[in-house]
Amino acid sequence: MKTFVASKNAGKLRELREIFAGSVLDLQTYDGYADVAEDATSYIGNAMLKARTLDRQIRKAGIEAAVLADDSGIEVDALDGRPGVYSARYAGAESSWTQRRAALLEELLGVGEEQRTARFVCVMALIAPSGKPHVALGTVEGRIASREIGANGFGYDSVFYFPPLNRTFAELTAEEKNAVSHRRAAASLLLASLRADG
């Protein structure tokens, strides 16, 4: 199924292509897609906002295909679940990922290792060519490291410590991360939903 992805994030696009490789979805980018203001108050709201925007764009261009969007964030228990849906705007809308990670680590200074529990959350929204939406939510549990470790990945990967592999996400290979990540969990549920729909 030809599927256009509502994202301009190169790291995310690469991960999604690897995660969905061999599935029924043939992921492609749409040159005309422009990022929308992610001003919903939930992951589902933002994912659907992006999916509906791209769905309207391709239909207006006379293209019949599916669209896929996701919204993700990191939730830190010691911060009452922040930054959550505002993860990409943490430390200010114009801040860099380096600044966002630094702000998160600074806010957690003095918080003990056992209290640094956190999770990555991902919601994927797919609108089929028929117009029917499919939504799936995936999570992965871990902790916030005391400093950045690792050079792989993107976003908050270098501060997200994953206990089962005793490494941060930024220390994992793409294959290792994509086997256990929040995006993998959401993708698996999304594909199951599509299979159930026939």
List the helices and strands and how they pair.
Elements: E1 2-5, H1 10-20, E2 26-29, H2 43-60, E3 66-76, H3 97-107, E4 117-127, E5 133-144, E6 160-162, E7 167-168, H4 174-180, H5 182-196
Parallel strand pairs: 1-2, 1-3
Antiparallel strand pairs: 3-4, 4-5, 5-6, 6-7
Structural class: alpha/beta
Distance between the termini: 13 Å
The CATH architecture term is Alpha-Beta Complex
When the domains are counted, the total is 1
Largest sheet: 7 strands, mixed
Q: How many β strands by DSSP?
A: 7
Distinct helical segment count: 5
The mean pLDDT is 94
CATH class: Alpha Beta
Q: What overall form do the CA principal axes indicate?
A: globular
Could you tell me the radius of gyration in angstroms?
A: 17 Å
Strand content: 15-25%
Strand order of the largest sheet: 2-1-3-4-5-6-7
Order of helical and strand elements = EHEHEHEEEEHH
**Under CATH, the topology is which?**
Maf protein
* Helix residue percentage: 25-40%
- Low-pLDDT runs of 5+ residues are none
